[in-house]
Write a structure and sequence with these properties.
The chain is of the alpha+beta class and 343 residues long. The protein has 2 domains: 2-121, no CATH class; 159-342, Heat Shock Protein 90 (2-Layer Sandwich). The chain is built from 8 helices and 7 strands, in the order αααααβαββαββαββ. It has helices at 2-19, 40-66, 73-104, 123-186, 191-209, 217-235, 260-269, 308-320, and strands spanning 215-216, 239-246, 253-254, 277-286, 289-297, 325-330, 334-342. The protein has a 5-stranded mixed beta sheet with strand order 2-4-5-7-6, with helices on one face. A two-stranded antiparallel ribbon has the order 1-3. Strand 6 and strand 7 form a beta hairpin. The longest helix has 64 residues, at 123-186. The radius of gyration is 34 Å and the shape is elongated.
């Protein structure tokens, strides 16, 4: 709402400044004066600028979208030429009745057809000025329209990319989690049924919330906690997992599934039943700032390359949180991620 008011206020200021432009540094020596409608020059130029202003918005909101962007450019050019001729005609039309009024007031030194040079600009100069302002208005509206069209195209492209990235992340997560449950079922572990229930809750979250632009941070943290609980059930004592959440989550929003890939990567590449595996996860919220720290000790199964989920998440961060800070430390014996982002 505030943004809309600010935009309308900006348009009003620009339109006012445009109409008053001919009266800046006027011949009277003052920096700015308001139009005097008893003066032929002021009356004519006020009418020209006012009509040109209306045409600017008509061109921006109707002619360009309906004709120029729909490959009807020849018709668009014809309309522009006709409108220019109309403006040249109306610039004279506005001046004619005024001449008669000035004549009745005794402002003329001669016949009705002659006008004092102090009241009306020479006809050629007036037409040249009208043509110049008209061309500037047409080019400006074209520039703003094309720029807006490019921005909309870019937003649509980013939205399509994000949808694709989400579609790639979800099957990736499902594949890893099913492997975890499979390990439990192989060992005839009774917790396998509980893990299936947990997985159902996780997938319900993905189905209901993954396509939302923003979601409550508390729900995202609950989703991550369920995922870690599921991994603890699978790994039992073969891995030391330290998980901690600090800070106030109330009223905070976050893009869904933006953190899970960093955590998932630690479990995927930092766990080996034959070695001492260690994973540390810290989520800390301070004001509107969120910090995610993920650390895992390297084991023999660790791969140097980041997985698909990691690459996709890094791309999403670039689109949605361009001011984020991501530090990845790939050392000889450990791998850690530090992410800082504004919610």
């Amino acid at each position: 709402m505030k943004n809309s008011i600010a935009v309308y206020a900006l348009h009003i200021c620009i339109c006012t400044a445009f109409i008053l432009l001919p009266y800046v540094f006027s011949s009277t020596g003052t920096f700015l004066r308001f139009p005097d409608f008893s003066n032929g020059h002021d009356r004519t130029y006020f009418g020209i600028y006012f009509v040109l202003l209306i045409f600017f918005y008509f061109n921006y909101f109707y002619l360009i979208p309906q004709l120029y962007f729909h490959d009807k450019r020849f018709l668009y050019v014809i309309i522009l030429v006709l409108m220019l001729l109309f403006f040249l005609w109306i610039s004279n039309f506005v001046d004619r009745p005024l001449n008669e009024i000035l004549s009745a007031m005794g402002s003329y030194n001669g016949p009705l057809q002659k006008v004092s040079h102090s009241t009306t600009a020479p006809k050629p100069a007036q037409d040249e000025h009208t043509i110049l302002v008209y061309i500037i208005g047409v080019l400006s509206s074209l520039f703003f329209s094309i720029n807006k069209r490019l921005q909309e195209t870019e937003r649509e492209k980013i939205a399509a990319e994000l949808s694709l990235l989400k579609a790639q992340i979800n099957p990736h997560f499902l594949f890893n989690t099913l492997n975890s449950i499979y390990s439990l079922s192989i060992r005839k572990d009774d917790r396998a049924s509980d893990c299936i229930v947990q997985l159902a809750e996780l997938m319900r979250y993905i189905m209901n919330n993954a396509n939302d632009n923003m979601i409550d941070l508390s729900k995202e943290i609950e989703y991550i906690s369920n995922y870690i609980s599921l991994q603890k059930s699978r790994l039992e004592e073969t891995a030391q997992i330290n998980y901690m959440v600090n800070g106030n989550m109330i009223g905070k929003k976050i893009t869904p599934l933006i953190l899970i890939s960093f955590i998932e990567n630690a479990f995927k590449h930092g766990v080996n039943p034959e070695e001492n595996s260690e994973i540390d996860i810290l989520i800390e919220v301070t004001g509107q700032e969120l910090k995610l720290l993920v650390y895992n000790r390297k084991v023999h199964s660790v791969q140097a390359e980041s997985g698909m989920g990691m690459r996709n998440t890094i791309e999403r961060l670039g689109h949605l949180y361009p001011d984020h800070k991501l530090e990845i430390a790939n050392l000889d014996k450990s791998y850690s991620v530090k992410l800082t982002m504004e919610l």
